[in-house]
Amino acid sequence: MSLWKRISSHVDCEQRMAAYYEEKGMLELRLCLAPWIEDRIMSEQITPNTTDQLERVALKFNEDLQQKLLSTRTASDQALKFRVVELCALIQRISAVELYTHLRSGLQKELQLVTEKSVAATAGQSMPLNPYNMNNTPMVTGYMVDPSDLLAVSNSCNPPVVQGIGPIHNVQNPGIASPALGMVTPKVELYEVQHQIMQALNEFGNCANALKLLAQNYSYMLNSTSSPNAEAAYRSLIEEKAAIVLTMRRSFMYYESLHEMVIHELKNWRHQQAQAGNGAPFNESSLDDIQRCFEMLESFIAHMLAAVKELMRVRLVTEEPELTHLLEQVQNAQKNLVCSAFIVDKQPPQVMKTNTRFAASVRWLIGSQLGIHNNPPTVECIIMSEIQSQRFVTRNTQMDNSSLSGQSSGEIQNASSTMEYQQNNHVFSASFRNMQLKKIKRAEKKGTESVMDEKFALFFYTTTTVNDFQIRVWTLSLPVVVIVHGNQEPQSWATITWDNAFAEIVRDPFMITDRVTWAQLSVALNIKFGSCTGRSLTIDNLDFLYEKLQREERSEYITWNQFCKEPMPDRSFTFWEWFFAIMKLTKDHMLGMWKAGCIMGFINKTKAQTDLLRSVYGIGTFLLRFSDSELGGVTIAYVNENGLVTMLAPWTARDFQVLNLADRIRDLDVLCWLHPSDRNASPVKRDVAFGEFYSKRQEPEPLVLDPVTGYVKSTLHVHVCRNGENGSTSGTPHHAQESMQLGNISPQSGITFYSPGRLEESDSDASETAEALERIVIGAQPNDPVISEITDALLTSNYRQYVYY
Predict the structure, then answer these.
(1) What single-letter DSSP state applies at residue 171?
(2) What CATH number is attached to the domain comprising 546?
(3) Are the CB atoms for 122 and 199 separated by under 8 Å?
(4) How far, CA to CA in Å, does 317 sit from each of 91, 229, 308, 323?
């Protein structure tokens, strides 16, 4: 049965493929010449892998197609003649490459659909989660494909959970296109891919049986004496062999489509791995399912390779270039499979500091299939610049182990590791647990480039022998930025965050777009902030960030320069510097409060004022917002006793090292009701919202002079300066800077030092002194009459010992 007849037996498949061919007006051509197109494309001796090859193959196909149509015009059917004339006009309007790639891609899709239907019919309603369906062992017979071999593949692994890996980068186009052929691999679940490989192996068993029968007949013919039917038997053998060759070509073509699916899933996994560098969720264990696919593909291609070699032993003619070419294709396919299975499964830190230890690991997804684990190779690692990485990927530079040391852009200690095979989980990997980058060679900078923009990658490589030929495999890590000082971290993380979020699944290292839509960037920022702090951003937060990124000419696109190079309007720092500082402040000093929803965060002053003034609770309602004007600052906005909104000066990490945020809020009696960060929630009492974050304070104790230090202990409290205090007359009073250096106490401080206990109130002098002590404010003017009065009172009392200068 032809492929198109099998498609036509399923209405949904027929409709889907008809729509596909009708896109280019080729449906009539597909229907009219269905068997010829299938045989012509599937039996090609050359699979085009380059643009030149593609053009040559397409032109030859176009010529053969025209000849086929011209020969059809001699038919007596007038309707058919008319259709042929229309088809001839069609192929004149479409380029040869476009015509060929569309038809070839269509055959790939048809094979995919037919296999899916076959798998569904086999599995029925009771298809288990185990993709190997152990209750239905494939009935593969013949010496080429032994069922025990297939079971060895499936029994060596635990039954996987149904786990699909959906493409993240391009949701609209879930397939991945081949640049040469224009083919698209549809998105399928991994367990479906595994079923399809098993089905292909099952069907290949029929070819193995036919080959076995051919070999027997060939041996009989060689050993038999002359026979009157010898010539007929000889022609029969030639026809049988040609049919087997055609079947093998079809099987190989189907293998390529299956391999493309698995590679597509691996690329998706690696893309998710890059997204995880920004904090996105990542199911690392899905790599085990991908490895099962690689192991099954290796079993498939190994059986096919053995079959081709056996077929070549049946020598009926002197030369068989078609079969020789098929052998080369299968051998190359096996090599490509082995090379593509070598990956970095544990990435190194993407912001890498020199002279700092780090770890990474590589994994070979072929498990024990080729027996390489019996003589495990040693994996070496060097660091490469972006240009060096491009040479290996885009130019396919031949790898010479002896010359690679000179390609390194730095010096790494402990940069070799022998691969190990773990029998319990079938993982074949090499772990680098104690690497250290000692030196780095940097390229010359152009324009405004900095060292934090320069990308490197770890290059892992090794050499092994498979089927008597040597294979050199290598893989690159995700891009890394090398720094020598901690103050280079923020900009380095800008480079990495942008790359992880917006890199194409397939690209030249490490090409990246210089602009993205706000929709794309908002997702990346939300993932980054949410993973770092434990709570995602709200729609209002993201709207505020969008406004911060805009310039005079508003656009839906955000450029790399807007993101981290150009200072924001009226500011001396970039958007990323501001965003990164807030993220660090939240993580280091406000994590619990942020996760609990106590901090509004990203909201501008105008909206904060509007929201507070609309609050039904009025005076004492407050919220916390991140500062616009200071890096890594958080401020409090509250409704004062006059019904107006007051903004306190920002606090930074330096302030929270003295007194944490929750305790500062507890000290401010003007704060009563926390305005909710959730639009649908109601204000919450301050102590209810922040109570769990208050630190425990000691009970008041009598004033006691420490005999060792000669000091009286004190505690820090925060208060809001009134108009007129500390020289402040503005509506936004100055607040604590807490500069503790002797002789350099801030004159605008709002922090009061209290002794840890009160004096006895039964003594009148003691009562007055206690009240006086509570009024001492650090930062008062040196000649303040209040301070002079308190000092005189203390000196003339029994509490002279508590006065210090």
Answers:
(1) S
(2) 3.30.505.10
(3) yes
(4) 37, 19, 16, 11
Q: Of 32, 46, 39, 43, which Cα lies nearest the Cα of 3?
A: 39
In the three-class reduction of DSSP (H, G, I as helix; E, B as strand; rest coil), residue 615 is classed as coil
Q: Is residue 676 a part of any domain in this protein?
A: yes
Chain segment 56-110, per-residue pLDDT in tens:
888 888 888 887 777 765 555 566 666 777 777 777 788 888 898 999 889 888 8
Please give the average per-residue pLDDT across 515-520, as a whole number.
93
Number of C-beta neighbours around residue 57 at 10 A: 22
CA dihedral for 386, 459, 497, 348, sign (positive or negative): negative
HEC string of 726-744 equals HHCCCCCCCCCCCCCCCCC
List residues bridging with 752 in a β-sheet.
717
Distance CA 659, CA 194 (A): 59
Alpha-carbon distance of 698 to 701, in angstroms, equals 8
**439-480 pLDDT tens trace:** 999 988 777 778 999 999 999 999 988 877 788 999 999 999
* CATH code for the domain in which residue 390 is found: 2.60.40.630
SS3 category, 718: strand
Which amino acid is residue 199, in one-letter code?
Answer: Q
**What would the two tokens of residue 274 be?**
């890059």
What CATH number does residue 226 fall under?
1.20.1050.20
Rounded-to-integer distance, Cα 605 and Cα 601, Å: 11
> Any residues with CB less than 8 A from the CB of 322 and at least 6 apart, and which?
45, 245
Q: Is residue 635 part of a domain?
A: yes
Residue 12 pLDDT class (50, 70, 90 cuts):
confident
- Tell whether 466 and 574 lie within a shared domain: no
Q: Which tokens is 128 given? A: 């288990």
Within a domain: 384: yes
Does residue 563 surpass a pLDDT of 60? Answer: yes
Determine contact, residues 382/412, Cβ cutoff 8 Å: yes
Q: Are residues 71 and 198 in the same domain?
A: no
SS3 state of residue 470: strand
Task: Tell me which residue of 367, 332, 252, 298 sits closest to 150, measured CA to CA.
Answer: 298
Of the residues 642, 660, 693, which one is the last residue of a structural domain? 693
Task: Say yes or no: 577 and 533 in one domain.
Answer: yes
Do 289 and 223 touch, CB atoms closer than 8 A? Answer: no
Cα–Cα distance measured from residue 340 to residue 263, given in angstroms and rounded to the nearest whole number = 8
Q: How far is CA 759 from CA 430, 703, 767, in A?
A: 70, 7, 7
Tell me which residue range forms the domain holding 395: 347-442+450-502
Tell me 567's DSSP state: B
- How many domains does the chain divide into? 4
Let me know whether 489 and 353 are in one domain: yes
Whether 253 is covered by a domain: the verdict is: yes
Q: Are residues 374 and 352 in the same domain?
A: yes
Instruction: Please indicate, yes or no, whether the overall pTM of this predicted structure exceeds 0.90.
Output: no
DSSP string, 429-475: EEEEEEEEEEEE--PPP-TT--GGG--EEEEEEEEEEETTEEEEEEE
Give yes or no: residues 307 and 389 share one domain. Answer: no
Q: Which of 660, 693, 726 finishes a domain? A: 693
Please give the structure tokens belonging to residue 233: 């038997």
What is the secondary structure of 304-371 as a DSSP string?
A: HHHHHHHHHHS--SS--HHHHHHHHHHHHHHHHHHHHTEEEEEPPPSEEETT-EEEEEEEETTTTTTS
CB 383 within 8 A of CB 442: no
Query: Are 351 and 478 contained in the same domain?
Result: yes
Q: What is the CB-side half-sphere exposure of residue 667 using CA atoms within 13 A?
A: 21
- Residue 158, token pair as written in the block: 């635990």
585 and 636 fall within a common domain: yes
